[in-house]
Every structure is written in structure tokens, then in C-alpha cells.
Amino acid sequence: MSEALIPMLGVVTAIRQDTPDVKTFRVEALGGGKCFEHMPGQCAMLSIPGVGEAMFSITSSPTVKEYMEFSIKKCGCLTDWLHRMDVGQQILIRGPYGNGFPVEGELKGQNLLFIAGGIGLAPLRSVINYCRHYRQNYGNIQILYGSRSKDDLVDYQEILDEWMQDEGIKVYLTIDRAQEGWDGHVGFVPSYVEELGFDPQGKVLVCGPPIMIKFTLQSLEKLGFTKQQVFTTMELRMKCGVGKCGRCNIGDKYVCKDGPVFRFDELSELPDEY
Amino acid sequence: MKKIAENRLPELYQALSAERKLYLPLEEGGVVGYGLYSPEKKTALTAPSTVKSPKELFFPQVEGVVNFQMQGKNIDILPIEMPKEDFVVMGVRACDVRSFDVLDRVFLSDPVDGYYAARREHGTIVSLACDQPQNSCFCEAFGIDAAAPAGDVRCFIREGVLYWQALTDKGQALTDSLFGLLEEAGPAGQEQQEAFTAETKEKLQALPYHGLDLSAFTPDRLGELFHDPKWKKLSQACLGCGSCTFVCPTCQCYDVRDFDTGHGIQRYRCWDSCMYSDFTMMAHGTPRPTQLEKFRQRFMHKLVYFPSNNEGMYSCVGCGRCVRKCPIHMHIVKVIKALGGKKDE
Ligand code: SF4
Ligand code: SF4
Ligand code: FES
Fold first, then answer.
1. Which residue of A has its CA nearest to B254?
2. Per-residue pLDDT reduced to its tens digit, A142-192
3. B93 with B177, same domain?
4. Rounded to 5 degrees, what are φ and ψ at B65?
5. I need a surface site. Which of A86, A137, A234, B118 has the fewest CB within 10 A?
6. Given a cut of 70, is residue B342 above it in pLDDT?
7. What's residue A1's pLDDT?
8. CA separation for the pair B174, B19 (Å, rounded)
């Protein structure tokens, strides 16, 4: 009998320091390859015995066949431990969980605008790289990414070397406050959205801190976007990942199962408890 | 239908416990609860109710899930064997029998919870019709017939005789295993059942919560009920003690934790409560900061969210345990009455 709470073994094969408090971990199955397949926006439970277990979004694209990646911010007992571990560490993993972004559904054939704040790029990176891989299936791709400072931009090297080099992809970066060595845009994400005045068509994928998401949605609505066009992914405390422990229940939805990706018109029908 | 004289029940218990474990209401230190039968225990089959429900026989309060060994950078995963012992639980009242339909919706839906499924498979439920509903009971509001509980076997006791009727194959197999102990009840069994049902019906109609109206709790009123200003007053005195969730037969929230056994790490799951302050706590805060939100979650889940996902099935069976146990006398009936005003009022 399959038992959802029992994890499988993975091994950490690479660790990259992205920002002062974010590292990206590469996880493979013991014999190489991925522990399981996933869709962009889905999550996995990672754990270390005796330390804890938590849900993380899978930041690598499903099109990568060799490994899965997780960009993890240091913010508690388990993440502190993960930040201290070395390559070669075995780790417990189970999943994939959640619905993911509808890359083969509603998003297909559409112009896509990605808006991320800070570590919120992690789930979107999976979608971005998936769409880059199947480029012909999607329209224009625009990416707006903001963080506190230049040093807090996750995946900065990949953004510079790959995304910015792609034809038909526009990348806009911004940081909260002016900083030496930065000649790009300075300012918060929501106001930059308004400044850039995106054409209100296609679909938008927003991810970041709750407050950023809230104001970004307001900015998008000012530009003429409707809630039906905007998707986001939610972060709630989770334990089981399979809609049974009750932890992530909001209204009649379970974020681990019915989410974490929601369209804003669906979200606004739910109780405001996220 | 079969029967056995009430004074021969110890023989029945012996027979039932000979080949498998038998759980039934026992009295210990003035407290009645489901426990493992043995001849020296004080049975309390006909006690009006147990403090805790029989839920823990299928969904234990604490249960090991998997063991780990850590060696340097390596981890060994040591599975724990699935429950595989046959057992009988006897004396389950109609409300508690219904609670398994609610739990089944949670644990047997995809992906199936293996531990719960194994216990359901190996457990046989012998129910006992209720002839002493208490003032705190309101199973009727959920369409539960206290006099005719479901289960694998249904029993009722009248005039010193226990009547026994198998309802499922499992129940029939259990009945067959009892050989000559049970006698045929004959047509008298039917008459006794009708009399029992009539008596119970009368008692139910005299209960203070008789006629409790749930019609206001429909999924389409989710927003309206959620934003009802009455939650503030209702939740004001709640201590967040979680007693109501622990005694509840349908509460199923759990936590998953690790425990250092001294020779490894055991991952176990244990009951948790949405009433606790850290239930939804994350590094950057909680979406339910005050007791109002936590209190509201418990009742909205039972009366609105769960039915919305389960064709109208409420996640309350009216057993009255939370009504009896809440230290501040706040409970689901008060919530139903306060918020249950008709739609157009
Ligand atoms: S909510 Fe209260 S009355 Fe309803 S099933 Fe749970 S304990 Fe019983
Ligand atoms: S409603 Fe009563 S029993 Fe439940 S947590 Fe609050 S005080 Fe405790
Ligand atoms: S994490 Fe357990 S129900 Fe969603």
C-alpha cells in the first residue's frame, strides 16, 4: 500500500549561494535522475529526520531531466539546517504536491507576464524555463523581477546569461533602494508595473510576499487587467500535503491539493485567511 | 436476528475476545471510555456515552509512521508495519458509527491513508442502539436514527435481552464465528425492535435540542456566514484548550513530528487542533492571529466547508461531547443557533 507520509531518499548534488540568505539545492535520486516528475508550480516536502519537514516549491523546470532544484530562504529550524549542510547529504523528499500552473491549459498560446518579488521567483522560474523550452507554445514573454537589493536577486546569473539573451523575452529588474554598482531601475514592484504600463492582455503570474502581491494586483487592475487573467501561488503551513491533516484549509479549499496556484477570481471567493 | 440474555454478556465478550481483540466501553475511576476487554475489567456497554469517541481505534491519538537512522550524511528509511490485527469494537452508538462515514471521506479519498484503511479493513463495528439520549445530544439534526445505528452488526437491548443483527458480510462472518452462543430471536425480535424504536423516538422528541435547524448552513452562504459579526461574541471566551476537538469523533486534523527514540528517529503523527495558537503559524506569522479566526475555522469547517466538498455531509454527528466538555460552555449548538437565523431574516 502506498503511504503518502513516507518519504523517499534523495541526495544533494550541488549547492549554490544565490543571495546572503537564499541557497539553491540540487536534489537527485540515489541512483541519479529525478525522484519524481512534476509540473511547474508544484511543490515537494523536504525533510531531515529529527529536524523537521516543510513544503518547498520546485524551482527547476520539469524539462530538466537530471535533477530537481529548490531555492530556499533561511528562516527557521529546518531551513537553517539545510543552509548548513554540504553536498552529498542525503535528504528525504516526497511529492509532487499541488496543482501547478496551467501551462498546458489556460496559459497555452498566451502572452505571459511574470511578476516576482524576492524569493517569489522560485516557483515562477520553473514556469519561465518550461515556457522557454516550449517557446513556440506561448506568445510574448515579459518578466518583471524585483528584490530588496542587487544582492538579493535570486538566479541573477541565469537571468543575465540566459533569459536576457533570449529573443522575444523582455526582462525588467528593479531593486527597492538605490545601490552602488546598480544602474538599473530603482523602486517597488507594484509602482514599476504601473510605470511600465503593460498592455492588459494575456495572462499574468505573480509571486512574492503577500503585501507585494496585494499591491501588484491593484496596479494590474489599474492597467485594465481583470482578476481572471492573474494567477498566483500561495504559501501556507503544511504537514501532510494530501488534503488530510487540515492544516492548509481555507474555505472549502486545501492549498496543498487544490492550490497552491489560484486564479485571483477564485481567490477572492475564499475567506481572507492567507 | 439473534439474541442473548443480558446476564450472559460476559460469555459473549469472552467469545468475541477469544480470537481477536475486543474493545468496548469500560469504566475506570468513574470515567467511561473505549478500552481493551479482559475479564477483570469493568464493562460499561450501556453507559450513555464515552468521554472520547472510538475514533482512536482507527485513527490513534499518536501513531508511528516511519523510522529513520542517520549515519553521517546517510539516512536509512525503516518502514513501520501496517496494522494487521483483526479487532471488534462493540457498543458504538449511532452518532459515532456515522462519524466513520465522515472520517472515511477524509482518509479513504485519494490518496488513501494506509494506516486508517488497514484498521478499517481489520475492524468490525458492532453498534448499539441508543436508549438514553442525553440533553446534550442532537444526532437527529443530521438525520441519524439513534435507534437504528449502522455498523457491521447492529444491537439493541430491551427487557434484559441483547438483540443482534448482522448488516454486512463482515458482520455475518463475526456472527457465524460465535457458534451456539446466540439464539434465534424469532418474530419476537421484530416486535421488540419496534417497541424500542418507538420508545427512543419519544425520548428524542423530548430533548432540549430537538428540532435544531441546520438549514442556514449551506455552501452558497459561505461568505455571509464567515463575515457574520456574531463570531466575535461567540469566540470571546474560548480558551483555545482544544478539548472540543479531542473529544470530537469527526475532528481529523493531525500533526507530523519527529521523536528521538535514543536509537533512531521516529516520525509519528498525532492529533492536532485548529483551536491551538500555533496551528497555522509560519515564519512570517499566521493567517489566523486571534481566537476568533481559530474558533470560526472549527465551526465553518464542520458546517460549511466540509459539506461543500462532500455533497452536503456535515462534519458533525451531534454526539454532544463538545457540548458536555467545553470548560466555558461554548459549543456548536450555540453557534448553530446564533448563526442559523433564516436567510431572509
Ligand atoms: S462537533 Fe461536538 S457534537 Fe459535533 S460531532 Fe464533534 S464533539 Fe460531537
Ligand atoms: S470551544 Fe471550548 S472546548 Fe473548544 S477550544 Fe474553546 S474553550 Fe476549549
Ligand atoms: S497540508 Fe495537510 S491538508 Fe494540506
1. A245
2. 999 999 999 999 988 899 899 999 988 999 999 999 999 999 999 999 999
3. yes
4. -110, -45
5. A86
6. no
7. 40
8. 11
Chain B segment 289-308 residues within 8 A of A by beta carbon are 293, 297, 300-301, 304-306, 308
Does residue B307 share a domain with residue B170?
no
Indicate if A118 and A12 belong to the same structural domain: no
Kindly identify the ligand whose nearest atom is closest to the C-alpha of B212. 1
B54 shares its domain with B144: yes
CA of A190 to the centre of ligand 3 (A): 31
ipTM of the complex: 0.89
- Cβ neighbour number for residue A188 with a 10 Å cutoff: 18
**The pLDDT value given to residue A210:** 86
Mutational pocket test of ligand 2: of B51, B136, B231, B243, the residue with most ligand atoms within 8 Å of the beta carbon: B243
pLDDT 10s digits, B172-222: 999 999 978 999 999 999 999 999 999 999 999 999 999 999 999 999 998
Subunit contact A50:B255, Cβ cutoff 8 A: no
Ligand 1 atom nearest to B138, measured from its CA: 3
Residues with CB under 6 A from ligand 2: B 238-244, 275, 326-328, 330
The set of residues, in sequence order, having a beta carbon less than 8 Å from that of B170 and lying 6+ positions away, is B124, B152
pLDDT at B343: 44
Which run of H or E residues covers position A143?
A: strand A141-147
Specify whether A7 is located in the same domain as A74.
yes
What is the pLDDT at residue B285?
73
Which chain A residues are within 8 Å of B82, Cβ to Cβ?
1, 3
Mutation for testing the A interface, residue in B253, B259, B298 having most A CBs under 10 Å: B253
Domain that holds residue A41: 3-97
Annotate B203-230 with DSSP letters as a single string. HHHTSTTTT---TT--GGGHHHHHT-TH
Q: Where are the beta strands (DSSP E) in B60-100?
A: 62-71, 74-79, 87-92
Q: Residue B344: what pLDDT?
A: 41
Rounded to a whole number of angstroms, the distance from the CA of A256 to the nearest CA of chain B is 13
- With beta carbons under 8 A apart, name residues in chain A contacting B300: 251, 271
Mutation pick from A5, A78, A234 vs chain B, by most beta carbons of B within 10 Å, is A5
The Å distance, Cα B176 to ligand 3 centre, comes to 42
Number of structural domains chain A divides into: 2
Residues A16 and A51 in one domain: yes
Average model confidence (pLDDT) across chain A:
94
Note whether residue A240 is domain-resident. Answer: no
* Domain-located, residue A252: no
Q: Is residue A245 within 6 Å of ligand 3 at its C-beta?
A: yes
Question: Can you spell out the DSSP letters for A29-95?
Answer: ETTSS-SS---TT-EEEEEETTTEEEEEE--S-TT--S-EEEEEE--SHHHHHHHH--TT-EEEEEE
If asked whether residues A123 and A226 sit together in one domain, one would say yes
CB contact under 8 A, A271 and B226: yes
Task: Read off the pLDDT of residues A107-132 as tens digits, 9 standing for 90 and up.
Answer: 999 999 999 999 999 999 999 999 99
pLDDT-based confidence at residue A2 (cuts at 50, 70, 90): low
In this structure, are A143 and A224 located in the same domain?
yes
List the one residue out of A68, A186, A63, A65 whose CA is nearest residue A127.
A63
The CA distance from B218 to the nearest CA of chain A, in Å, is: 12
Pick the residue of B225, B256, B296, B309 with the most A CBs within 10 A to test the interface with A by mutation: B256
Q: How many C-beta atoms lie closer than 10 Å to residue A209's C-beta?
A: 14
B36-63 pLDDT per residue, tens:
999 999 999 999 889 999 999 999 999 9
Count of the separate structural domains present in chain B? 2
The residue behind cell 533569459 is A163
The predicted structure's pLDDT at residue B341: 65
Of the pLDDT bands very low, low, confident and very high (cuts 50, 70, 90), residue B280 is confident
The residue range of the domain holding B20 is 2-59+82-205
